[in-house]
Description:
The protein is α/β, with parallel strands linked by helices and 291 residues long. The protein has one domain (14-284): Rossmann fold (3-Layer(aba) Sandwich). Helices cover 41% and strands 22% of the residues. The strands form two sheets. Strands 3-2-1-4-5-12-11-6-7-10 form a ten-stranded mixed β-sheet, sandwiched between helices. Helix 2 (55-74) links the parallel strand 2 (42-49) and strand 3. The longest helix is centred in the first third of the chain and has 20 residues, at 55-74. The chain starts with 13 loop residues before the first strand and ends in a 7-residue tail after the last strand. 43% of the residues are buried. The model is unreliable at 1-7 (pLDDT under 50).
Amino acid sequence: MSATAGTEGVMYKKILAAVNEHLNSVITARYALNLARACSAKLYLCFVAEKGMSGTDIEKAEDAMKRIFSEARDMDMQVESISTTGRPVQEIKKVVREEKIDLVFVSARRADVKRKFYRATTASELMLRLPCSVALTRVIHMGRVHPRKILIPLKARIDNVPERAYFTAKMAEGFSSKVFVFHTPKPITRFFHGEIDLTPMEWDKRTPADVRDFMGHINKYRIDFEGRLTPGRVARTITIEAASKRHDLIIMGATGRSLLSSLLRGNPVEKVLRETPCDLIILKPRHKDDK
């Protein structure tokens, strides 16, 4: 399916990327840069030097800020660089409130992913505490950021549909990517007979209303996309789909409620975060639904 008509209102006017000394934060900032360019938004680059940070690490972070700042200026974008000291969560939260930031990009470190992610990591704290939308990025491929195929796994029930569709469409616009909307319904079973196979048309009839609503919003943007349903276990099916079809980026959604529940038990979002074969963005949307 190809979108052929119109666009919706701008949701992101100010986008902030949290930059540090690690390469994955630099790549995450480039995702933010390209989204800001597609949204005609102002880009903020923010580095917070923590207590005890080495001079070498501070220099790495500041050099990264300068490079990304120059890239944005070369694209004639509005860009501002902010460097400060203190605790990252507190300082970034302060900037978000003072500058009225709409969206913050933050990177997940490899060390964070190896343990229970949503327990006491800087990235998880930012997702839970910031008063704006947050895009948590896990970088798998350290090469140049340019996703051609973006996979969008959707649950049966979706919150903040307009914002999630807007984020997806603008990310695709920023990279001239194709979007693949992907839903994993539970396999149908009958007592004593095991799973029942359905034709693609029958599966299409079982597409949940929220998934159809998301695709309706996506259809308002001029991007190339298609939809697909594949029954199975959610996290495993998503990672298999991403690997087998060679997707470059997965974009998933996570509400505040699902993030809090992950403090107590795992969920598909965290499983995909651990096992993703490609770059992954987990969007926690904060804009109100307009439906």
